[in-house]
Amino acid sequence: MHRKSIKTPTLGVNAKSYMWGDDLLEIAEYCEKIAVENDVTVTMNVPVVDIYRIAQVARHVIINAQLMDAIEPGGTMGGIVPQALADAGADGVILNHALARPMTLAQLIKAVRYAKEAGLYTFVCADSVEEALMVASLHPTGIICEQSKLIGSGVVASQEYLQSTTKAIKDYDANIIVMQGAGIKNGDDIYRNIKYGSESGGGASGIFCSADPKATIADFLDGILRARRDFGSRVYRED
Question: Tell me: domain 7-235, CATH 3.40.640.10, correct?
Answer without folding.
Answer: no
